[in-house]
């Protein structure tokens, strides 16, 4: 099993690292990280396909509905365009959809 960990938010780095380490320790999966430059939603989806990832773990900024409408949501785009399961990590205390 290969997992692609995506993190563009500094406050999620430790949380995501812990999630990946727990998964690794429990099932001995191969965890890969990669630094790419470009539009995040396209580059993340491209990297998932290139690595043949079995799982994508991605953070959410938890923008409100108005900001999300204008800025778009990278995590939403990726969850609808990659061909593997996606885990979206929301900020603590986020009660939005």
Short account of what is shown:
This protein is α/β, with parallel strands linked by helices and 97 residues long. The protein has helices spanning 10-27, 40-51, 65-71, 74-81; strands spanning 2-6, 30-32, 55-59, 86-89.
What does this structure look like?
It is a single chain. The chain has a single domain (2-89), classed as Rossmann fold (3-Layer(aba) Sandwich), CATH 3.40.50. It is built from four helices and four strands. β1, α1 and β2 (30-32) form a beta-alpha-beta unit. α2 runs parallel beside α4 (74-81). The termini are far apart. The radius of gyration is 13 Å and the shape is globular. The longest helix has 18 residues, at 10-27. The model has no long low-confidence stretch (mean pLDDT 75). A four-stranded parallel β-sheet has the order 2-1-3-4, with helices on both faces. It has 97 residues and is α/β, with parallel strands linked by helices.
Keywords:
Rossmann fold, four-stranded parallel beta sheet, 97 residues, Rossmann-like_a/b/a_fold, Universal_stress_UspA, alpha/beta
């Amino acid at each position: 099993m290969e997992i692609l960990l995506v993190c563009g938010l500094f406050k999620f780095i430790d949380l995501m690292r812990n999630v990946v380490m727990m998964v690794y320790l429990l099932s001995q999966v191969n965890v890969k990280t990669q630094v790419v430059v470009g539009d995040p939603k396209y580059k993340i989806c491209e990297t998932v396909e290139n690595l043949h990832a079995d799982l994508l773990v991605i953070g959410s900024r938890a923008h409100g509905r108005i900001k999300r409408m204008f800025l778009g949501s990278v995590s939403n785009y990726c969850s609808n365009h990659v061909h593997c399961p996606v885990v979206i990590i929301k900020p603590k205390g986020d009660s939005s959809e």
